[in-house]
Amino acid sequence: MKHEGKIALVTGGTRGIGKAISLRLAQDGADIILNYKTDSATAEATAAEIHALGRRTWLIQADLKDDKAIKHLCSTIKKDVGQLDILVHNAAFGTMGNILRMGLFSWNAAMAINVTALLRMTQLLAPMLSDSKGHIIGLSSIGADMTFSEYACIGVSKAALESLCRYIAFELAHLGIHCNAVSAGPIKTRALDWFQFPHAVDNYGETKSPLSRVGRPDDLAGIVSFLCTPDADWIVGQVIRADGGISMGENFTDWLEDGDEKEQALAKSAREWESAMSRARRP
Length: 283
Ligand SMILES: NC(=O)c1ccc[n+]([C@@H]2O[C@H](COP(=O)([O-])OP(=O)(O)OC[C@H]3O[C@@H](n4cnc5c(N)ncnc54)[C@H](OP(=O)(O)O)[C@@H]3O)[C@@H](O)[C@H]2O)c1
Fold this sequence. Notes:
alpha/beta, Rossmann fold, 7-stranded parallel sheet, 47% helix, binds NADP nicotinamide-adenine-dinucleotide phosphate
């Protein structure tokens, strides 16, 4: 198993994408430190799933908006765990809305949780991560370098997170610490409910991905696990885009209005594919 004997901290590791990452790292052999903010029942249920895989867990409540809580999280890891190989900064915060209505509380909280918390955990946990020649992964979003309605608060903070990951990779490589980011498109979790029209986000993912579906938390988990292996050590300070291809480009038929024209275009395209494939199958 690729992470046997390793210990991973996953912030916000108790539900959604963080849970999928925690379970995958555990399946791959790691013991897991689960951080969460308030939902202790969900946290305990996730810890039980990890135990059932035969792994150890530590549950540490800490609101990453608060520097005292971050210090407590890191000192508990030093004192009670004594080893750290992987840090996945997955917990995030942001409010939806346009920039003219952006409240400073939300803006500052997004920066604090999405960016400053990673800086502080890196500072406080660097000695342990250096001892283990460990890996740091930041969870980002394609909204860092694309613009989406309502998304400025999170998008801007994720752009800062990606930049921080590059600086961590650049400056801490000599300590043996590896750092990269994973940038996701829409993934079906509770977080999507914060959008004004969650079903429009679903439709966007399904329409734009050539795989014709919205992302699932498991789509990211294996990528994060791989990036934390020595096989990925030549990937340094990169943002790995994992969005089912939705940011690749456009299919112009998606922009035809529903009706005869669209139906005819799709039917013609299907016929052309069928004939091209049957030609290609001929010996
Ligand atoms: N879902 C998407 O479409 C999508 C797309 C691109 C990128 N991402 C990124 O993927 C990551 C996970 O997203 P998700 O959709 O899985 O989120 P989620 O379902 O809302 O889960 C959030 C997790 O973070 C914890 N958390 C929230 N605020 C925290 C704080 N202040 N301190 C500590 N923990 C906190 C929550 O703990 P409690 O349960 O205690 O609240 C929960 O465990 C985020 O970085 C997000 O930006 C998501």
